[in-house]
Specification:
The complex is a heterodimer of chains A (176) and B (291).
Chain A (H helix, E strand, L loop, with lengths): L1 H7 L9 H23 L2 H17 L9 H20 L8 H6 L8 H10 L3 H11 L5 H8 L3 H25 L1
Helix pairs in contact in A: 2-3, 2-4, 3-4, 7-9, 8-9
Chain B lengths: L7 H10 L4 H13 L4 H8 L14 H4 L14 H24 L2 H19 L2 H5 L1 H15 L15 H37 L4 H5 L35 H29 L3 E5 L2 E5 L5
Antiparallel strand pairs in B: 1-2
Helix pairs in contact in B: 1-3, 6-9, 8-9
Classes of the chains: A mainly alpha (176), B mainly alpha (291).
Chain lengths: 176, 291
Amino acid sequence: MQLCNIFAAEPIYFKMTTPEYNLCVKELADGLYRFAWKSLGDGEEAKDAVQQAFLTLWEKRKEVPPDKAKAFLFTIAYRRSMDRHRRRGAVILPGSLNEALTTEKKQAHDLKQILQNALERLDQQSRTLILLKDYEGYRYEEIAQLTGLNATQVKVYLHRARKILKTYLVSLEYLI
Amino acid sequence: MEINKENIEALILLFVDGEMPEKEGRTLMDFIRRHPEYDSLLKSYATTKLVPEDELVFPDKALLIREENKIIPFHKKGGFIARIAAILVLGIVGIAFLWKQDEGPEQLQQVAIRQARQVQPEAGPKQASKSPAGKRAVQNQVAAAFLPVPKPKNMHTVARLPKQAQTIKQEAAYGAQAEQKEIAEQAILQQTLVQEQNREPSAESKAEQPEWLSWSDSLEPAPIAKVADKESLRIPDWVPLDQDRLQGVNDLVAQIQATREKVEERVGILKHSTLVLQVWNKEIVFGNRNE
């Protein structure tokens, strides 16, 4: 439904050509793969998600204008990530972060690795929002369009996620 | 923009997210410079910002690439020969089309009329065309030729099928010839019939029914008629009768009688027969088996 809402306001007279589609593959496949891997937490599933997203884009190329292709692809990947999360039903609440923190191995000194570990402990919604914000540089309004939330919700979820990450990092630093 | 300890954290978060306008960002930095106790807060939030891992690339990118539909330009390989061949083919097709368009159904009708008019004098006696019936028949034929020919469904136009057009021409000529002969014969018969109807019937013919018109169920062969017996058989004078035609009629009557005898013989055999159908070990009997 969200896809329809995104593109409903604009007239459908675009037709993405094959070179334009191939350009999308070259420019967006890596970013989409990173986002899918980080949000899904599985490389193979991320590959599937990317292939599915581009296949859908190819099938809908007559309806998707080239400048909306990125949003289209990331929306598909985001939905897949959320669907998978709902199927699994695995939610790590922020409250359980401190418990996980105590079992964190002290050899995780690398900030990048620590951040990745902290990211995995966020709930799915917050994680994908952080990824969309930091990896792809989307603005609040753009993320709202992709995810079906409103801009205020995006802002609130993102700030809450940053506070959790900060708390995690500060606590880890304290433990170390 | 007012900055205080209540909203500093929210403003730092907006700054980290890149959602703060440049002017307000500079104001925030000035505030933190003046209040260094918030510097650690800014740094701790700044560390939560993820850095994209550029080394992580999608390995199967080649599988996603789509090939364009290749269009071979006409001016490339064998361009000169191909162009000449195309021009020749188009020219021949165009000329053939225009030529065949001239020989449409109307022209075929005119050809048929012309041929019918050529055949007309040979078809029969002159009375046929001069008599009212003959004239009417000729008029009908000419009118039919000018009427639009109904085109059957799923049939191509004659202009597109040269062979079919020729066949139609020939058929039209033959048809017109045969029709003309038939019209002439009908005219003679019509004339004779009118004369006979106008004549007063004799008293004898009124009293007796002619024998040759009666139907007989008997198996006895019909009497062989001869020209000489015309008077005894009471055949009217207006019936054309000669020896050859009478012989043919006699032969036909004899053949019919022979066939009738054969059929009756077969029927007699079937009446006393029994039909038995055997399906595995069951027998289905039609008729009386005891006979």
